[in-house]
Amino acid sequence: MQALILAGGEGTRLRPLTLTRPKPAMTLVDRPFVAYMVDWVGRHGITDVVIACGFGSDAVRAALEDRPTPTIAYVEEPEPLGTAGPLRLAADRGLLDDRFLVLNGDLLADLDLSALLRAHEDHGATATLALHEVADPRSYGLVRRASGPTALGERPSGPGGEVLEFLEKPAPEKIDTDEVNAGAYVLESAVIDLIPRGRMFSIEREVFPRLVGRGLYGHRLDGYWMDVGTPERYLEASWDVLEGRVRTEIGDRLEGARFGVAEGADVESGASVEAPALVEAGAHVGAGAILGPRAVIGPGSVVERGARVASSVVLADCRIGADAEVEESILAPAVVVGERARIQAGSVIGEGARIEPGAEIEAGARLEPGGVAA
Ligand code: GDD
Ligand code: MG
């Protein structure tokens, strides 16, 4: 059985990070985002993975190049085919069995996919959607199902049931349940017949509504689940990995210490590091620097003396000058921050950008790749 990962979206809300590399190839904590997904399905015995991508496919391939176990096939779309079109393409190329999993490519999750498969089999379903309860259901696909909650905040009477209605991002007044489409599906190959060839087609808007009453089930899964589609959620996901709120390989390795200095990293004795934090191989942290709480310093990055990095992710090969400050922000690879510069909360700095010494970057700023801020 395969897991097909939809990895061809543009990642608009994560710009400028996604201007230079696609979302699945972006590093989260210590590895490319898509690697968490490959690990996740691997824990449920699935080692046959199909990655559907268009934009940035070379980077996605490179990101997975040294993964040890799974068999990975790539489907490259000449034009974006939406969330359903890639399934048709993969099926036409003989890459999918009679039953397969489909996953949105921006999920950090440890939901029990084996339980989803069992529910699918028990119902003899055509398609089974993983459902998850979220605090704010507004930006998701909303699913009403038999034995599900019928009012916001109400507990469902059972974990699964037939889907009665699928509404992709409905108007706020239509939202009456907090169970949403978690972007993980078990499908029978019969679903492929509903998808036309060679054009953009949406599984949420054009396939699931047509499957209602024809073997479409939903199954609620508790556990950790996050759509890592915005800078805020990217940071939150990073801390959740380090603090072990989601089951991941790196989290297991840190074993609750929530703090790691990779072999080959150099943290000078006068530096202070407060967990959760990770300093990657080849990184250097100078005396008097203050990291954390909550910091990731990517491989090869340098934090000079007296600099402070808090609640922030500094990706590979960056340089944070002496006495500079980075607060609740994300720095793409190869960013240079001059001495005494200050990057305020909510900023996202594009790859290779330069911030001049003493510059003040206002809260919520976006700096394009290669850009200069004085
Ligand atoms: N290959 C390919 N081609 N992948 C695509 C394309 C495309 O043309 N368009 C989008 N994708 C991928 C994205 O990369 C992402 O992994 C996934 O499809 C879903 O797209 P998003 O743009 O992230 O959708 P969303 O987050 O607004 O909504 C979806 O996910 C929610 C859960 O996170 C929907 O499936 C909702 O129903 C769901 O609740
Ligand atoms: Mg998404």
Please provide a written account of the structure.
- This protein has about 375 residues and is an alpha/beta fold.
- The chain is built from eight helices and 33 strands.
- A nine-stranded mixed β-sheet has the order 5-4-1-6-11-8-12-10-9, with helices on both faces.
- Strand 2 and strand 3 form a beta hairpin.
- The radius of gyration is 22 Å and the shape is elongated.
- The relative contact order is 0.12.
- The mean pLDDT is about 95.
- Guanosine-5'-diphosphate-alpha-D-mannose (GDD) binds near residues 80 and 181.
Summarize the structure.
By secondary structure, the protein is of the alpha/beta class.
Bound molecules: guanosine-5'-diphosphate-alpha-D-mannose, magnesium ion
Tally of strands? 33
Widest beta sheet: strand line-up:
5-4-1-6-11-8-12-10-9
Provide the residue-averaged pLDDT. Answer: 93
The percent range for helix content is 10-25%
Question: Which overall shape is indicated by the principal axes computed on the Cα atoms?
Answer: elongated
% residues in beta strands = 25-35%
Uncertain runs are none
C-alpha end-to-end distance: 53 Å
Structural class: alpha/beta
The value of Rg in angstroms is: 22 Å
Tell me about the largest β-sheet: 9 strands, mixed
Number of helices: 8
